[in-house]
Structure formats: structure tokens, C-alpha cells
């Protein structure tokens, strides 16, 4: 599920830190670079940002969204949104009512969850400088006091309340720093204990209504998970059998008072393999197994059950478009719901009485906002109205879904790859428009038609088209598609970008001589690999926290992530795979990267360490290329502070102006 992910005005940031700036010339590789340090920001070869561009970007960089995080006891909604530098907790108690900010931290919050009846407050996570060693905190809405719940050292996330709000399950590395165990906390005594210590990565999914059992799951890879149930009194773990031996699982929820369960899985049905993760029902006592969403040939990405157990809601991801379904339980009668705009649905939550369903709704032309459905009246009410910087939202561009042929075939016909295509409203002055290919991370992820202020700026202010492909390895298109880039097939996804370049050359409105590519994390690897193979066809690229060598990445990523990444990329301890990493590494192929490159990195990144950025910058500069480099000392895997994100956004626009548009 998507993921999940940030932004002080650039001029203010420069004003605050101007007196501390210093510049020096440093030599890295064969090319001298101009280095400047301003507060927490270090740049090399990045020119000054023109004031006119800062002004032009200002409104786009002051858009914001609101994410639903639960109902409070008095019927308000808890939301996460940003009104200063970072995303914080807020409360809204009426449709389009005042937003009351509750937390005021310099670091952004994560894992924001409102407690159910029995505890008037919420839990949230917070790390330091993007290092992702989150600590969990309790915020009491009556006293307005905050209490640390975890040890202050380990990595803690995925909090889950029991139905009565008295217990909290969460994932933690506290035991040995490597395995992600499930811990159980008594909120009255604040005492916690390890509950599941089987090794690997575990998450809690649902408490039984009586608070005596817990549904849990061990995640191995996007294609392999193992569910089970824990008796909280004895700690006994009962693993559920997996049809076919290996399968992907999504949400699990108790129904029928805890006697049965709803779950999302791609296990075989009647012995027939399944491509998609569908919603299913199982009653262990009777052995009844029922397929609920089998009529929808797409993944189910979200599932929620009302507290009284009388309604269920789920979201199907249909070719990148979310569809909401609400059913009466146990009749499975489909209940009418208001039509939702084309977009992405997240944060489902039934009200305590089960009569309303809150959700976050994001579309390509509007940032996330909280909407509430009255299930009896079948009405949709907007509870938040997030700003779009004072811009005219009617000028925002929605994409069209296109499919382009790639290098291999399916049933004797060329395989096609989906992409969201954003076209500028204004015709190009010279007849053809430049284009930027934006590649998602993961690779177990999916680009969706969500609001992106940077994309809208490129379209409306710079006249640049944007293509957002879901190359092989993306989720949302079946398990076979997800597995097509694993291990030794890694560069097949890069070939999909080559096929997209061919498609661009065939579009009369696009300028195949002015193509840029950008991406973050695994998408950053894709940028570097695409430049390595297609520098003659790509003008420039921006790599954000990207992998430059899978071998060094696996060696240096945090230990709690290493086995999870080996399942996708391959095991560097295998000599054959290690040799393959050497062969496909952009670091080793840096001499073939001859297009201008901009590398951006957070110093505290636990996923893709900053050394991945430093080594590719040094290697490409060996070609005589004056690579732009940007590093923030208070960020991790991406830029979550507004001032940092704003600066990076502005520097990116200067980069495109100089290397793509001219």
C-alpha cells in the first residue's frame, strides 16, 4: 500500500543562514567542484537560485494535504497535516471546522493513530533527522501531556490499539537491533513485553474483540508473508497454513465476534493460481472459505471493519484507480456509496457507532483531504479543505493512462507497460514539448494519479510534459508482473525505460531530443541505470537517495532491512549474484553516464546510505562531468522538512532549465 511521505520558504531559509555560509573549492575525481555549506545544507556545483524562480515556485510549494488518522471520543477527526515546517497532529471537530494543532515538533510525526473508546488520546512516532529510529509517544487529550512509550533507542513503528484502547501492539527492534518483533504494551501501567520473537519482520494486524488474541503476520517479501494468531496470555503463536506453500497477504480482520476472519491474499483458489490479492473469508470452526472480491480482477489494498461488526469496507486498486466498496456483514450486500472522484483512497475508518466512514481522498488535481460518508443518508461531506497556495486549481492537469509496448511479448503480442501521461495545457512554442520521466521507488511500489505540486509546476510554468511509468516489478498488476525484475532480471526494468524512449519518439507532440529522467530510492537507481544505457537519448537526470551499487548498498543498509532487500534484489553473498551486481552497477558503468547529473541525499538515510550518493558523484565526475550534489544533514530517506524540500525543488527547476530546456 502506498505508501506511505514535506516542506520553510526558501527565501526565509537563506535569510536565516546567510551569515553562516562559506564556500570553498574542492576536487573530487577529475573535476573541481564548488562546495558551499549553509546551515544543515551542503551543495556542490549547485548555482544560486534566482529570486524570480523562488517567487514563481512559492505558491506551488505552499500546497498541503490532510490525512485521516482516526476518530476521537467526542466525534472529532484526528489528522496529520503541515502548517509550518513539518507534518504534525491536528484535530477537526466539524465539517470544514477549525484545525486545532496539537503537536509542535521540529521533526515530522509518523504512525499517527487515535485511540478507541477507553483512552482519550493518540499515539504517534517521531525520529531524529530522518534516521527512522522512531520512538512511540502517547498524547493525552485531557491533560495535553506527552509520554514516551518506547526505549528511546530502538526502531519502533506500526502501533495498533486493542478494541478497548487498553493495549497497544507495535513492531520493535529492541530485542537485538536486527529482528522486528511484536511487543505488547499495557497503557495503564506503561509496561511492555516482547510478544512475538520468532525472528524476521513481524506486524500486528488486529486484536480480537475480547482483547485475548492478536492476528499477526511475518513479512518476507512482496510475494511472501506468513500469517498467524497469538494468544496474549500464553504468548503461543499459531501459524496459519498457506495454500500453495507461499503467498502474499494484505490485511487481516476478525469478524463474527472473533470467531472468523476476513483477509486479503493471492493464495490459489480451488487449486488455480491467482494473480491478484483478493478479499476472502474464513471460519476455522466450519472450514468455510469464501471469496468475496473474486469478481474484481485487481488487488485489494485496504480493509476495515466497523466496531459493531455490521459493515466492512475495502478498496480495490483497478489499474491504478482506487474503488471503494462497503458491504453489510454478514449478508455481503453491497451498500450504496457516493461516487468518488478518480484518485487514491486511504486511511479508512468507521466512526465509533459504525454509521459514518471517514477516508483520505487524493486526486491528481487536489491534495489529500478528509471526507466522511454518512452510510445511512449516502452522502459525502468534506471535513478539511487543504490549501493549494492560492493557485487556481482548475488549471491543474490530470493525466491520461497510456500503455506503451516494450521489448518482450505476452501470448505472441508485445507486452505493454502502463504510464500516467501529464500534458501541458499550453501548446509548445516550438511545436514540441520536452518531457520528464518520473520513476517510482520500491521497486515494490506503484505510481498513482495523486497530486504533485512539482508536476503541476513543470506542466503549467515550464511547459514540460511528465510521464510516470509503472515498469515491471511494480505492484498492482499481478504477482507475475511484480516478479519480472527480480535478481538476475534487474535490468529488464531498465529496458522498459528504453521502450518508453522509443514511444516518446513516436509522439508528434513530444521532443525526443529533450528528455529528462528523475526518481528516488530504487527510482534513483533506475535514473542512474537509464543514464548508463541511454545517455545518448536522455538529456539529464536527477537521482534522489538512489542506489548506485547493489553490493555496497546491501552491505551498508541498516541490518533490520538487509534480508528484506535480499529477497528482492538478490543475495550479495552468492558469488554469481555478486558478479551480476558488479556487471549492472551504475557505479562501475559511470564512464557511460555522460549526461548532466544531479544527486540529492539525506545524511541520516538508514535505507540507502549517503555513501551510495558520494561514490556515484565521485565516479561520474571522473568523466569530467560537473555533477550537482546536495546533502541535508537533518534528513534521511527523502526530504520531509519544508525548507529542505523547497530548496531541493528550486534547485531541481534550475537544473532542468539549464540542462533540459535550453
UniProtKB/TrEMBL annotation:
<dbReference type="InterPro" id="IPR011659">
    <property type="entry name" value="WD40"/>
</dbReference>
<dbReference type="Pfam" id="PF07676">
    <property type="entry name" value="PD40"/>
</dbReference>
<dbReference type="Pfam" id="PF00326">
    <property type="entry name" value="Peptidase_S9"/>
</dbReference>
<keyword id="KW-0645">Protease</keyword>
<dbReference type="InterPro" id="IPR001375">
    <property type="entry name" value="Peptidase_S9_cat"/>
</dbReference>
<keyword id="KW-0720">Serine protease</keyword>
<dbReference type="InterPro" id="IPR029058">
    <property type="entry name" value="AB_hydrolase_fold"/>
</dbReference>
<dbReference type="GO" id="GO:0004177">
    <property type="term" value="F:aminopeptidase activity"/>
</dbReference>
<keyword id="KW-0732">Signal</keyword>
<dbReference type="GO" id="GO:0004252">
    <property type="term" value="F:serine-type endopeptidase activity"/>
</dbReference>
<dbReference type="InterPro" id="IPR002470">
    <property type="entry name" value="Peptidase_S9A"/>
</dbReference>
<feature type="signal peptide">
    <location>
        <begin position="1"/>
        <end position="23"/>
    </location>
</feature>
<protein>
    <submittedName>
        <fullName>Dipeptidyl aminopeptidase/acylaminoacyl peptidase</fullName>
    </submittedName>
</protein>
<dbReference type="GO" id="GO:0006508">
    <property type="term" value="P:proteolysis"/>
</dbReference>
<keyword id="KW-0031">Aminopeptidase</keyword>
<dbReference type="InterPro" id="IPR011042">
    <property type="entry name" value="6-blade_b-propeller_TolB-like"/>
</dbReference>
<keyword id="KW-0378">Hydrolase</keyword>
<feature type="domain" description="Peptidase S9 prolyl oligopeptidase catalytic">
    <location>
        <begin position="450"/>
        <end position="660"/>
    </location>
</feature>
Amino acid at each position: 500500500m502506498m505508501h506511505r511521505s514535506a516542506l520553510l520558504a526558501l527565501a526565509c531559509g537563506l535569510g536565516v543562514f546567510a551569515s553562516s555560509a562559506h564556500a570553498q573549492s574542492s576536487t573530487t575525481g577529475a573535476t573541481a567542484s564548488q562546495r558551499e555549506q549553509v546551515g544543515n545544507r551542503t551543495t556542490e556545483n549547485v548555482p544560486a537560485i534566482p529570486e524570480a524562480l523562488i517567487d514563481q515556485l512559492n505558491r506551488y510549494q505552499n500546497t498541503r494535504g490532510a490525512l485521516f488518522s482516526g476518530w476521537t471520543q467526542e466525534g472529532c477527526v484526528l489528522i496529520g497535516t503541515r502548517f509550518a515546517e513539518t507534518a504534525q497532529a491536528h484535530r477537526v471537530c466539524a465539517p470544514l471546522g477549525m484545525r486545532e494543532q496539537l503537536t509542535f515538533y521540529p521533526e515530522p510525526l509518523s504512525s499517527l493513530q487515535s485511540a478507541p473508546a477507553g483512552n482519550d488520546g493518540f499515539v504517534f512516532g517521531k525520529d531524529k533527522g530522518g534516521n527512522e529510529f522512531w520512538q512511540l509517544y502517547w498524547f493525552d487529550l485531557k491533560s495535553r501531556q506527552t509520554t514516551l512509550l518506547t526505549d528511546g533507542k530502538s526502531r519502533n513503528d506500526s502501533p495498533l490499539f486493542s478494541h478497548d484502547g487498553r493495549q497497544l501492539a507495535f513492531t520493535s527492534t529492541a530485542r537485538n537491533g536486527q529482528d522486528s518483533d511484536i511487543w505488547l504494551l499495557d497503557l495503564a501501567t506503561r509496561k511492555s513485553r516482547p510478544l512475538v520473537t520468532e525472528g524476521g519482520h513481524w506486524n500486528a494486524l488486529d486484536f480480537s474483540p475480547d482483547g485475548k488474541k492478536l492476528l499477526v503476520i511475518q513479512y518476507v517479501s512482496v510475494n511472501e508473508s506468513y500469517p498467524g494468531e497469538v494468544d496474549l496470555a500464553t504468548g503461543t503463536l499459531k501459524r496459519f497454513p498457506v495454500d500453495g506453500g507461499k503467498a502474499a497477504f494484505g490485511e487481516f480482520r476478525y469478524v463474527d465476534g472473533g470467531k472468523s476472519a476476513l483477509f486479503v491474499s493471492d493464495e490459489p483458489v480451488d487449486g488455480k493460481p491467482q494473480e491478484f490479492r483478493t478479499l476472502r473469508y474464513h471460519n476455522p470452526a466450519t472450514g468455510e472459505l469464501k471469496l468475496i472480491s473474486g469478481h474484481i480482477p485487481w488487488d485489494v489494498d485496504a480493509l476495515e471493519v466497523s466496531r459493531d461488526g455490521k459493515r466492512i469496507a475495502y478498496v480495490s486498486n483497478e489499474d491504478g484507480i482506487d474503488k471503494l466498496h462497503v458491504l453489510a456483514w454478514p449478508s455481503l450486500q453491497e451498500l450504496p456509496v457516493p461516487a468518488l472522484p478518480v484518485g487514491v483512497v486511504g486511511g479508512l475508518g468507521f466512526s465509533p457507532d459504525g454509521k459514518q466512514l471517514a477516508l483520505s481522498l487524493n486526486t491528481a488535481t487536489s491534495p489529500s483531504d478528509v471526507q466522511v460518508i454518512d452510510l445511512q443518508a449516502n452522502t459525502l461531506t468534506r471535513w478539511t479543505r487543504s490549501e493549494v497556495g492560492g493557485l487556481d486549481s482548475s488549471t491543474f492537469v490530470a493525466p491520461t493512462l497510456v500503455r506503451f509496448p516494450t521489448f518482450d511479448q505476452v501470448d505472441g503480442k508485445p507486452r505493454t507497460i502502463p504510464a500516467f501521461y501529464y500534458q501541458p495545457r499550453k501548446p509548445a512554442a516550438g511545436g514540441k514539448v520536452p518531457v520528464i520521466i518520473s520513476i517510482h521507488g520500491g521497486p515494490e511500489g506503484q505510481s498513482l494519479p495523486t497530486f504533485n505540486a512539482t508536476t503541476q509546476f513543470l506542466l503549467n510554468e515550464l511547459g514540460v510534459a511528465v510521464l510516470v511509468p509503472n515498469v515491471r516489478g511494480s505492484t498492482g498488476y499481478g504477482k507475475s508482473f511484480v516478479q519480472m525484475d527480480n535478481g538476475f532480471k534487474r535490468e529488464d526494468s531498465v529496458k522498459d525505460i528504453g521502450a518508453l524512449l522509443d514511444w516518446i519518439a513516436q509522439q508528434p507532440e513530444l521532443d525526443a531530443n529533450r528528455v529528462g529522467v528523475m526518481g528516488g530510492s530504487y527510482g534513483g537507481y533506475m535514473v542512474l541505470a537509464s543514464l548508463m544505457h541511454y545517455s545518448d537519448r536522455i538529456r539529464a537526470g536527477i537521482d534522489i537517495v538512489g542506489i548506485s551499487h547493489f553490493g555496497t548498498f546491501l552491505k551498508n543498509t541498516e541490518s533490520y532491512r538487509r534480508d528484506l532487500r535480499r529477497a528482492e534484489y538478490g543475495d550479495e553473498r552468492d558469488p554469481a549474484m555478486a558478479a551480476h551486481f558488479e556487471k549492472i552497477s551504475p557505479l562501475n558503468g559511470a564512464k557511460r553516464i555522460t549526461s548532466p547529473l544531479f544527486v540529492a541525499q539525506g545524511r541520516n538515510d538508514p535505507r540507502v546510505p549517503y555513501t551510495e550518493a558520494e561514490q556515484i558523484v565521485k565516479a561520474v565526475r571522473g568523466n569530467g562531468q560537473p555533477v550537482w550534489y546536495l546533502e541535508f544533514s537533518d534528513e534521511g530517506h527523502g526530504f520531509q522538512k519544508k525548507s529542505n524540500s523547497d530548496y531541493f525543488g528550486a534547485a531541481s527547476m534550475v537544473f532542468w532549465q539549464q540542462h533540459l530546456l535550453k
